[in-house]
Design a protein that fits this description.
By secondary structure, this protein is an alpha/beta fold. The chain has one domain (6-240): Rossmann fold, CATH 3.40.50. Helices cover 40% and strands 18% of the residues. It contains six helices and seven strands; from the N terminus they run βαβαβαβαβαβαβ. It has a seven-stranded parallel β-sheet, with helices on both faces. The longest helix has 25 residues, at 103-127. It is globular.
């Protein structure tokens, strides 16, 4: 699906980003595997190359505008241009009541999840080739409050605000930008360590109702939003939550 295309994926050293980077490569894309953890980025790059794909590993702290620019520029130079950006990197916060969220925690979560998204979107809007697309990882917490993770929920609400606000400027360059909003996912961020091995799409198992999802299920939706089949979708947010927010009470 992406033969001859080039993609950049942040937070690609583990979890959702790692699965998306491998899937993009399996579909023919050259992939810049970006992570603050250089070893993680190198490991996923090695897996892609071992499977016959093309990838480079880059280390970047997405909370820095300069490091975002450096990563995009390096990927652009390596591949002769960029077509897709999956801005997936983010952090959680320790679960505490609202009045116990410290300034340090609030600033860190906002710097990575919101400022990092903003800086990445600016680079994507500037550098992606016409016809390209960007996808951001938001959260089911983008749609409702999170009593014990207020900073996280606020940051992810903000990501949707950025995506909706940027849609016009992306469209003016024949680009699209959308958000994917996962529910509970088995990733290292929540202490899970699922296999990094890709599964054939037709063998992926659906999660239980309101249950945890495999990271590849999120990656598959990200690929759809990055690809030509979703060319009519811009400035939108797609929940992938196993019906977590479908009804209350359960």
């Amino acid at each position: 699906m992406f033969k001859g295309k080039a993609a950049l994926v942040t937070g690609a050293g583990s979890g959702i980003g790692a699965m998306a980077a491998q899937r993009l490569a399996a579909e023919g894309a050259s992939v810049a595997v970006v992570d603050i953890n250089r070893d993680g980025a190198e490991a996923i790059t090695a897996r892609i190359k071992a499977a016959g794909g093309t990838a480079i590993a880059l280390s970047a702290n997405i909370a820095s505008a300069e490091e975002n620019e450096r990563a995009f520029a390096a990927a652009e130079e390596a591949f002769g241009g960029l077509d897709m950006a999956f801005l997936n990197a983010g952090v959680l916060q320790s679960y505490v009541p609202f009045d116990q969220v410290t300034e340090e925690v609030f600033d860190r979560v906002m710097s990575v999840n919101l400022k990092g998204a903003f800086f990445g979107m600016q680079q994507a809007q500037k550098r992606l080739r016409p016809g390209g697309a960007a996808v951001l990882t938001a959260s089911a917490a983008s749609f409702l409050g999170f009593a014990d993770a207020a900073a996280y929920a606020a940051s992810k609400h903000g990501v949707l605000g950025l995506v909706k606000s940027a849609a016009r400027e992306f469209a003016r360059r024949d680009l699209r930008v959308n958000a994917i909003c996962p529910g509970a996912v088995n990733t290292p961020l929540v202490g899970a360590a699922p296999s990094l091995d890709l599964q054939p799409v037709e063998t992926l198992q659906p999660p239980e109702y309101r249950g945890r999802l495999d990271p590849q299920l999120i990656a598959e939706v990200a690929l759809f939003l990055l690809g030509p089949a979703s060319s009519g979708i811009n400035g939108q947010a797609q929940l992938v939550d196993a019906a977590l927010l479908s009804a209350f009470p359960d």
